[in-house]
């Protein structure tokens, strides 16, 4: 009888407190503590629990406590007429842009501002008080800023720093430390086939640069137009194994923040020049696009070439084992026939990849195999897009 009474009491409690009502029994501090431990995608879905939860999550005061999802991409355009460089932001969230791409808080101190890299809400820029430092043979200085909070710091330039002859990357993980690192892999791009021999590392904690020689067994050349991934305190950069050839094997160069641990991870066979590496759902992912060449002797019987996308996941980091996660052959949107799609980024929260079509960006859902969003870009863009997730903390 006691058990029946207890069960009846629990049933009545569930009836009297449906999920939305039960959620209101939690304090705001407890809700924020729970949400802060969840992925950004889950936090976004919890806005639908109730009106108070929606307002709590959307409150600007609470944003610094909650994980943020991908807001969009920073990119640059150049107009030869007048030599004008402009910065832009392509939002993927559907709302208004949450960042000022012009970075006017760095002006008028700097006349030249170039995007270099992003990492977990911080942006690395190469800056100069000259409008065209390359023409004057001037070195650039680095500035690391938080566009969401309109603030930045200025790492001193390393002894070998020259943005035009090196691959520079930013490493920052606010969950581990409030400090960031700038890594500069010196390479002479005029010497085809040059390989990484070492790295200069700046730490915002010490305010100093250190030089570390490479301890790689394999020779590798860093590809400058690819974003890097910070995972487990190790920076992962896309490169080509030497000797550099058009179809040479691609691999990831991996190094820690002290330049003491080095290794390479070979990318899946068949990797192409149209590929991307990214951190998605807590794991290292790799995506590649290929478009077969179609040869038709009859103009009346032209067979369209279908773009194929493959998405891989590094399931076992210790054995460097890549597992094919998803594969899709995409049909081009009827409104934009003939575009050559190239994958350039992977969504951090789901199996969606981002494709570059020149003046158009598209998000393609690999799970449901469909285009979910298409964005028109400014003309004359450099087709180098920096993934941006806002950071609402100092």
TrEMBL record:
| Limits of the F-box domain | 26-66
Which source organism does the UniProt entry give?
A: Lolium multiflorum (Italian ryegrass)
Q: Specify the protein name.
A: F-box domain-containing protein
Q: What is the lineage of its organism?
A: Eukaryota, Viridiplantae, Streptophyta, Embryophyta, Tracheophyta
User: Per the record, which residues fall in region Disordered?
Assistant: 1-20
Recorded hits in InterPro entries, A to Z, give:
At3g26010-like (IPR055290), Beta-prop_At3g26010-like (IPR056592), F-box-like_dom_sf (IPR036047), F-box_dom (IPR001810)
Sorted alphabetically, which SMART domains does this protein's record hold?
A: FBOX
């Amino acid at each position: 009888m006691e058990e029946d009474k207890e069960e009846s009491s629990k049933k009545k409690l569930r009836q009297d407190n449906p999920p939305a009502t039960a959620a209101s029994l939690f304090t705001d501090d407890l809700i924020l503590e729970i949400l802060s431990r969840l992925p950004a995608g889950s936090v976004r879905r919890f806005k639908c629990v109730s009106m108070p939860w929606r307002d709590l999550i959307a409150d600007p005061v609470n944003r610094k406590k909650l994980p943020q999802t991908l807001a969009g991409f920073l990119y640059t355009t150049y107009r030869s007429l007048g030599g004008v460089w402009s910065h832009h932001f392509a939002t993927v969230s559907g709302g208004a842009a949450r960042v000022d791409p012009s970075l006017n808080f760095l002006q008028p101190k700097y006349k030249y501002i170039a995007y270099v890299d992003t990492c977990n809400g911080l942006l690395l820029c190469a800056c100069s008080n000259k409008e065209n430092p390359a023409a004057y043979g001037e070195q650039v200085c680095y500035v690391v800023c938080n566009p969401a909070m309109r603030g930045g710091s200025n790492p001193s330039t390393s002894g070998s720093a020259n943005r035009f002859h090196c691959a520079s990357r930013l490493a920052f993980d606010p969950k581990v430390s409030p400090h960031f690192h700038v890594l500069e892999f010196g390479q002479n791009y005029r010497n085809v086939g040059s390989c990484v021999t070492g790295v200069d590392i700046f730490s915002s904690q010490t305010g100093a640069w250190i030089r570390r020689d490479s301890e790689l067994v394999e020779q590798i050349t860093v590809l400058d137009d690819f974003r890097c991934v910070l995972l487990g305190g190790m920076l992962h950069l896309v490169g080509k194994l030497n000797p550099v050839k058009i179809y040479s094997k691609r691999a990831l160069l991996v190094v820690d923040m002290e330049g003491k641990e080095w290794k390479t991870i070979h990318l899946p066979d068949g990797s192409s020049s149209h590929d991307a590496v990214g951190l998605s759902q807590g794991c290292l992912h790799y995506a590649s696009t290929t478009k077969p060449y179609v040869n038709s002797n009859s103009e009346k019987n032209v067979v369209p070439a279908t773009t194929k996308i493959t998405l891989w996941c590094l399931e076992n980091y210790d054995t460097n084992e890549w597992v094919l996660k998803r594969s899709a052959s995409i049909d081009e949107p009827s409104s934009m026939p003939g575009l050559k799609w190239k994958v350039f980024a992977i969504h951090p929260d789901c199996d969606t990849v981002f494709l570059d079509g020149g003046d158009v960006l598209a998000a393609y859902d690999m799970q449901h195999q469909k285009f979910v969003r298409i964005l028109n870009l400014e003309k004359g863009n450099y087709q180098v897009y920096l993934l941006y997730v806002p950071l609402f903390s100092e």
